[in-house]
Amino acid sequence: MKKYDMKPIVDLMDKSIKKLNSSKIDNIEVSDIFEWDCPDYVDAFIASADYDGKPMTDEQLNEINNDSGFVYECVMNHLN
Questions:
Q1: What are the Cα distances from residue 52, in Å, to 4, 42, 45, 49, 70?
Q2: pTM, rounded to two decimals
Q3: What pLDDT, on a 0 to 100 scale, did the predictor assign at position 18?
Q4: Which residues pair with residue 29 across a beta bridge?
Q5: Are strands 25-31 and 45-51 parallel, antiparallel or unpaired?
Q6: Are strands 54-55 and 45-51 parallel, antiparallel or unpaired?
Q7: HSE on the CB side for 49, CA within 13 Å?
Q8: Widest distance between CA atoms in the chain
Q9: What is the b/e burial string over 23-44, where b = at least 16 CB atoms within 10 angstroms of the residue's CB?
Q10: Running along the chain, 80 residues long, what does each successive block of 10 average in pLDDT?
């Protein structure tokens, strides 16, 4: 059985991931907040936001939506 070296693939993936500074994110629009989903709101997601004054790309939105803690914090801010 042939063994494959996954390191080059992992290296490429790591280089494509960008870290966003959450203090530069504003104008956040949260979607799919349902009363029946309380208190976890697992269906909620950030539909749009600005980063450093510019609309976020789909890639950036996907990145912040993968951070469930950040999304939950945005939901709580939206509800309060």
A1: 41, 27, 20, 10, 17
A2: 0.72
A3: 57
A4: 48
A5: antiparallel
A6: antiparallel
A7: 25
A8: 57
A9: eebeebebeeeeeeeeeebeeb
A10: 46 50 92 92 95 94 92 93
